[in-house]
Amino acid sequence: MSGARQRQRAKGRTKTAPRRPSKRAAGIRAAKRRRIAAAVAGIAAVAAAIALLSGGGSGPSPTAVATDVSTATVTGPPGPEGIPQQTGAPLAGLPASPDGRTVDGIQCNAMEQVAYHIHAHLAVFVDGTLRPIPGGIGIVTPVAERTNEGTLYAATDCYDWLHTHAQDGIIHVESPTQTSYTLGQSFAIWGQPLSSSAVGPAEGPLTIFVNGTAYQADPADIGLAPHEDIQIDVGSPATPPEKVDWSGTRL
């Protein structure tokens, strides 16, 4: 055999086929691709959340998750119900001549009804200043009882199923049956307007939080639920929402 043919055979023997990636290497690359895809999706979700909270877009997504953004707790000396009293000029006074008539389906009874008894808290700020909700709303005729923690109001005639006993923002729901009531009904008993542009005599753009979550519908439709925190800001600046510490009360 000539030297040239021997060299050609030797060359053919040393030539190797291209190596194929092992199954392990392919799995590692697939896992890496999945991690990258998940990271991209996470970044997109965070960006969407920021846009929602900053008011971007045409409105909240049907799948948007409500977020409690309140970080502070209502503070101050506890009032007669164990909740800090609201100080300052009240948002509005009591009706001049309460007569105990039925308002928006809510009656006024000589005794408080306890078959369904819950409490919600309302705080209203006007241009950044707290405007207290007075005690005595829905109480006919209110008489002040002095306590070491402040004034508590009782009725000489009757109690509406929605009423306030003290200037602490607590709305008492005391009904003969378990029924859904709204903040609008409480304002109707008070004799004050409540709409998307007015809270009592205060008018302007509203910022509303219910349990620390932004609420963008008509405030009159807010349902009163046990230990619910409702905060309404009229005008600006908007006050960050606060929670009520219900643990130290018997409410």
Report the C-alpha radius of gyration, rounded.
Answer: 32 Å
Q: Order of SSEs, N→C?
A: HHEEEEEEEEHEEEEEE
Average pLDDT works out at 82
Ranges where pLDDT stays below 50 over 5 or more residues in a row are: 2-19, 21-28, 35-64
Extended strand count = 14
In words, what does this structure look like?
By secondary structure, the protein is of the alpha+beta class. It has 2 domains: 45 residues, no CATH class; 177 residues, no CATH class. The chain is 20% helix and 26% strand. It has 3 helices and 14 strands. Strands 3, 4, 7, 8, 11, 12 and 13 form a 7-stranded mixed β-sheet that branches. Strands 2-6-5 form a 3-stranded antiparallel β-sheet, with no helix packed on it. The protein is globular, with a radius of gyration of 32 Å. The N terminus is likely disordered.
Structure characteristics:
disordered N terminus, alpha+beta, 7-stranded mixed β-sheet, single chain, 2 domains, 3-stranded antiparallel β-sheet, 251 residues
